[in-house]
Amino acid sequence: MATFDYDLFVIGGGSGGVRSARLAASMGKKVAIAEEFRFGGTCVIRGCVPKKLYVYASQFREHFEDAAGFGWQVGETSFDWQALIAAKEKEITRLEGLYRKGLDNAGATILATRAVLVGPNTIRLTATDELVTAERILIAVGGHPTPHPGLPGFDLCISSNEAFDLPALPKAILIAGGGYIAVEFANIFHGLGVETTLIYRGKQILSRFDQDMRQGLQSAMVAKGIRVICEDIIMNVSETEDGRRSVITKAGETLTVDQVMLALGRVPNTGSLGLETAGVATNEKGAIIVDAFSRTNVESIFALGDVTDRVQLTPVAIHEAMCFIETEFHGNPVSPDHDMIATAVFSQPEIGTVGMSEEEAAKAFDDLEIYRAEFRPMKATLSGRQEKTIMKLVVNAADRKVLGAHILGHDAGEMAQLLGISLKAGVTKDDFDRTMAVHPTASEELVTMYQPSYRVRGGQRV
Ligand code: NDP
C-alpha cells in the first residue's frame, strides 16, 4: 500500500477548510492545511464578520436620532473611520488567532504557503518548492469578487475586499450590483454619512428574493436618501484631474464620485491551482465540479465551499466540511442538504428569509395562500421614524405547508434562523395558528395572521 506524508491535505484556510482540517486532525489523522494569506477566509477577514461590524457602526446615526423620542438628548457626534478600521482589525486578528489555535490544538500542521496540485496525491508548496503527498486532498480555496474586466476603467474600481480598509471614507460612492453585497454596502456607506448611489441592471434590487422584500427594501433605502438607479449599467469609469472617478452609464448619465465599488458576483479561486495537471474537472464558471459528497472526478481529490459554487454561504461550507469528514473518515456517507437554507441580507432594514418566494411558489403550486402583514414597528412610534416591517408567509393551500417565510425589518436575520428550523421540519400554517404569541414583539405577527391576505391560483393573484 502506498504511504503518504498526510492522510488529509487541505488547501485553503477559510470556513470549510479549517473545519475539515480541525475535525480530521482531532480524530488523530495526519493533517496539513496550507493558507497563503490569513486564516479565516472571506467570512472572517473580508466578508461576513467585518461586514456585520460595519453594519453596527453605520446604525448609530439613526440610533442617535431616534433617542430624542425617548427623552434622551445626544450631544454632538462624530465618526472616526480609522478608529473603526482599527477596531475591526483587532477583532478579526483575534478570530484568526482562534482559528489557528483550534488547528494547533487538534494537531494539524499549519503551512503558510500557497499550495498547488501536481498530481492526484501530490501538492507543491510554493513557498519552499517542496513536494508533499496526501491520501486525500481537499480544495477549499473560496472565491473572489469578479473584477469585471470587460468594463473600461474596471481597474479604477474597488470591490468589497478593499471597501473595508479604504484610506479615507469617501464623500460619495457609486456601487454597482443589486445583490447581497451591493445592497449591504450601500446601507453601510449611507449610514456612515457617505453620499451613496446604487446602480443595478434589473427593475428592482435583489432579483432572487420575494417581491415584497425587494419592493419594501428598495423603497426604504430611497426614503433614507440612497439613490437607486435601476435598469442601467456602468459603461465607463475614468479618473478626474483631482483623483475622483467619473462614470458614464448606458442611459447617458455622468456621475462623479470618490469611489466606484463593483459588487457583481463572486467567482471561484480556481486559477493557477494545478487543476488541469491533476485532471480535476471544472464547469464553465471555473467552479470545481463535485458530486453530493463533495467528490471531484479524481478519486483522491475533494472540494467544498465557494470554490464549488453550490451555495456561496459560510454555514454551507462548514456543513459541507462536516459531511465530508463524516463520509470519508467516519465511514458514514452523508451529503449536505442544500434545500431550505435560511439567509439574511444585512441591509437597513434587514431581510430574513427562508424557503420559496411567492413568485417561485406560484410556479410550483396551483393554489397558494399568502399571509402578509405590514406595520410600523413599536420603536418607531416614539422615535417618529417612518419605517415599515413586512412579514409574509407563503402557504400551499392543498396541505397547509408553509413554503416560505419572509421578513423585512429589525432583527429579521435572527427570526429567519428560527423560522428556518420550523420550515425545515415541515411546519404547517395550522402549527403557526396554534402557537401562542410572544407579546409585545414584532414576530408575534407571524402567529397571528389568521386570514390569508390573498390567494394565488394558477399563478394569478385572486
Ligand atoms: P449576487 O449574486 O448576490 O449579486 C450579483 C449582482 O450583480 C446581481 O444583482 C446581478 O444582477 C448583478 N450582475 C451580475 N453580473 C452583472 C453584469 N455583468 N452587469 C451588471 N450587473 C451584474 O452577488 P454578490 O457579489 O452580491 O455576493 C456574492 C455571494 O456572496 C452571494 O450570492 C451570497 O451567496 C454571498 N453573500 C452572502 C451574504 C449574506 O449571507 N448576508 C452577504 C454577502 C455575500 P442580476 O440579479 O440581474 O443577475
Automatic annotation (TrEMBL):
Q: What is this protein called?
A: Glutathione reductase
**Which Pfam families does this chain map to?**
Pyr_redox_2 (PF07992), Pyr_redox_dim (PF02852)
Q: What is its EC number?
A: 1.8.1.7
Residue ranges of domain FAD/NAD(P)-binding in the record: 6-321
Subunit: Homodimer.
Task: Tell me which domain of life the UniProt entry assigns to the organism this sequence originates from.
Answer: Bacteria
* Gene3D superfamilies, per database record: 3.30.390.30, FAD/NAD(P)-binding domain
Under NCBIfam families, the record lists: gluta_reduc_2, PRK06116.1
Query: Coding gene?
Result: gor
The protein's job, in short, is: Catalyzes the reduction of glutathione disulfide (GSSG) to reduced glutathione (GSH).
- The enzyme's main class, written as a single word, is oxidoreductase
Keywords assigned: Disulfide bond, FAD, Flavoprotein, NADP, Oxidoreductase, Redox-active center
Instruction: Give the family this protein belongs to, as stated in its UniProt record.
Output: Belongs to the class-I pyridine nucleotide-disulfide oxidoreductase family.
Per its UniProt record, what InterPro entries does this chain match? Answer: FAD/NAD-bd_sf, FAD/NAD-binding_dom, FAD/NAD-linked_Rdtase_dimer_sf, GSHR, GSHR/TRXR-like, Pyr_nuc-diS_OxRdtase, Pyr_nucl-diS_OxRdtase_dimer, Pyr_OxRdtase_I_AS
What is this enzyme's catalytic activity, as reactions? 2 glutathione + NADP(+) = glutathione disulfide + NADPH + H(+)
User: What PROSITE patterns does this protein's entry cite?
Assistant: PYRIDINE_REDOX_1
UniProt GO MF annotations: glutathione-disulfide reductase (NADPH) activity
Q: Which coenzyme or cofactor does it need?
A: FAD
- Specify the Pyridine nucleotide-disulphide oxidoreductase dimerisation domain's residue ranges: 341-449
